[in-house]
Amino acid sequence: MTQFNDRIEPKDFAKMPKEYQSLLTRLLTIQADCEIGGPHIYVDHWTLRAPTVDDQWRVAKIAMEEIDHCRKFLRMLGLLEIDRSDILTRPRSKREVDAFKEDMPHWADFAAFGMLIDKVGEYQLEEMTSSSYRPVEDYLPQILREEKGHISYGQQQLEKLVKSGDEGRAAAQAAIDKWYIVGLDMFGTSGSSRTERYIEWGLKRRTNEEARRQYIAEVDPQIEALGLVIPDKLQGRKYL
Ligand SMILES: [Fe+2]
Ligand SMILES: [Fe+2]
Asked: Given 21, 121, 165, 179, which is the most exposed site by the fewest CB atoms within 10 A?
């Protein structure tokens, strides 16, 4: 696969082929939608219900960071004269990615979401490292740093639940069972032709199946380290 190596500044966008314009717009819009999709699931419910005041502060801080990530992706679209602020009021059922249509009834869901879904988010964002759209490099390092914080907080909370006794362990396992499959699906279908176009235009680096494989290799040992069971990968399998 050949790869496009130019760096595109916003002023050059209009001169780019239609395919590049639409792929870049699509990528930035989906990412902005995912960034705000998380807070829409948990802010109302968990900000003031998290187990301790430290956890409540943490939920608020994570939400603040996600809102900031959304703001940065909308800003990167704004540099192209594209206004997608409509995603701020999009109903949950209309989110771009299925993970953000789900509910989080148990605290274990918030924790597993951090460990597994923010981890997928990190993978998606890593795709944009050395993006051909030049402004990405102004925003990406801080976003990636913050995602790592969300992931490790989720892991810590799951560990706490597992250690708290049978009830906590069962809740942690149920949450892992749910979000693991949701996470695998987020990588998209294997053999996607659109992903090849993204790679060719320097907007992504890995195919969906490569990224999913690496994710599994990273996350499975972490689930085992928590003393939990790795869910059956074929259970969801929308992606195969
Ligand atoms: Fe984020
Ligand atoms: Fe996050």
From this structure: 165
